[in-house]
Amino acid sequence: MYIVPKLEDYSPAALDKAVQELLTAARQEAEAAAGENEWRAFRDRWMARKNGILTQINDLWLKAAPGPSKREVGARVNQLKVQVEEYVTVAQQRSSGSASKSRLESERVDITLPGIVRPLGAEHPVIKTMNEIVGVFRAMGFSVAEGPEIETDYYNFEALNFPPNHPARDTQDTLFIAGQEKKPQRDRLLLRTHTSPVQIRAMLNQPPPIRVVVPGKVHRADTADATHSPIFHQVEGLAVDTNITFCDLKGTLDHAMKSLFGSNVKTRFYPSFFPFTEPSADVQVTCFKCGGKGCRLCKMSGWIELLGCGMVDPNVFKFVEGNGYDARKISGFAFGMGVERITMLKYGIDDIQLFYQGDVRFLEQFG
Ligand code: PHE
After folding, report:
1. How far apart are CA 79 and CA 97, in angstroms?
2. Which residue out of 151, 234, 274, 309 has the highest number of ligand 1 atoms within 8 Å of its CB and is therefore the one to mutate?
3. So what's the pLDDT on residue 314?
4. What is the pTM of this model?
5. Which residues line ligand 1 (CB under 6 A)?
């Protein structure tokens, strides 16, 4: 440890000499300090508030100086402080320079190594098909609308001509939001069972003519198995204008099925029932696996059932009459298709659950 000499002689010449000696010592130490740690030690030895050399000088020289010499000693001590501080700063720059140099050295990157390949995601097959279906109808002049997944009893059932307690409701059992017993039945909230409520919402939004498709998620109390899922997707369609006929419905859906499955498929319309269409039909397409001869996929019938449709029931127009839907002047058709089912048939997928399991080995095949 450097011992600060006591001063006997307070003459300017003696002071200069003592200061010079100290500065020489400080400079040598500054030059010798290599690296962060040595620099810190150097700084602390000279500048530490408690017992640093500068503090010792303050005590040994300035405080001990006789009255008349105090000014002279004070000036020297200040000069010394300024100079030592500068040595410390210069030494710091030098030592941190060499520290960052060694850090750069250890963090050196070999830019000739091959890069990290991040796998690209793929569009989910259900969404891909849904967009494709929507695209087919957009090309025919349909616009696109969406509605809420949590729907009222009124839009999901009543305005679609399912009166309260009607047995047709049983085929579309779903979850109701809890604690709504005090509300009138029409206002009770449920998870929508089909995209058809958006037919009503769209007609309330826009007077006729209207051509709209509605992609979306729907819910049913179905136990999951290879062909059922309690959550699935539909694309709904609605066209209303003067003189819309069943022929328009057939032509539109025949064209859509050919666009989706290839121009070889034929369609047929099989009588069916929905409360909100009259007449109603199920659309079937010729089995694209066997071409109509009969196989396991089409259960030997040669036909595959794909979607529900029909002419808008005049009772439905009654619920939107105020917006220009007068059943005596206009008519329309509607259809609804399950997106998962169409995707399964398009790609030959035999288990609907594969869509929801998130297995990349399955999903990446649809990029
Ligand atoms: N919403 C019906 C269903 O989910 C399908 C459908 C839509 C039928 C439009 C006719 C017209 O089964």
Report:
1. 27
2. 274
3. 98
4. 0.71
5. 194, 196, 236, 274, 277, 308-310, 334-336
